[in-house]
């Protein structure tokens, strides 16, 4: 698995956990749509993630570097801030 793909999975996992925490452990899992549902042949320099939960929807923007650095774990402060801003919209 590439660093980019691993980072995509870890960002989704981080969001799922943050949504559960924000809702006291009682929330349906959010749905994810990367890159507006478009396929890509090369790793994009930036990517959008649309996250939906019940009637709420938010689009988060990440750079390739942010995603690749999340290949082990989401630790970048700017990535975490982006996610937490989105979770507040969803909660």
Q: Any chance you could write out the topology, listing elements then pairs?
A:
Elements: H1 3-22, E1 31-34, E2 46-53, E3 56-63, H2 64-69, H3 77-90
Antiparallel strand pairs: 1-2, 2-3
Helix pairs in contact: 1-3
Would you kindly provide a written description of the structure presented here, covering whatever features stand out?
The chain is α+β, with helices and mostly antiparallel strands. The chain has one domain (3-90). Helix content is 44%, strand content 22%. The protein has 3 helices and 3 strands. The chain has helices at 3-22, 64-69, 77-90; strands at residues 31-34, 46-53, 56-63. The chain has a 3-stranded antiparallel β-sheet with strand order 1-2-3. Helix 1 crosses helix 3 (77-90). The longest helix has 20 residues, at 3-22. The protein is globular, with a radius of gyration of 13 Å. The termini are far apart. The mean pLDDT is 91.
Concise synopsis of the structure shown:
The protein is an alpha+beta fold and 91 residues long.
Number of domains: 1
* N→C terminal distance: 31 Å
Indicate the mean pLDDT.
91
Oligomeric state of this protein? single chain
């Amino acid at each position: 698995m590439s660093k980019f793909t691993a980072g995509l999975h870890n960002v989704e996992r981080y969001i799922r956990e943050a949504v559960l925490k924000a809702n006291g452990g009682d929330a349906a899992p959010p749905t994810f749509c990367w890159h507006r549902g478009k396929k890509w042949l090369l790793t994009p320099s930036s990517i959008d993630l649309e996250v939906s939960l019940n009637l709420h929807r938010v689009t988060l923007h990440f750079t390739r570097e942010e995603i690749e650095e999340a290949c082990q774990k989401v630790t970048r402060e700017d990535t975490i801030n982006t996610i937490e801003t989105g979770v507040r919209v969803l909660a």
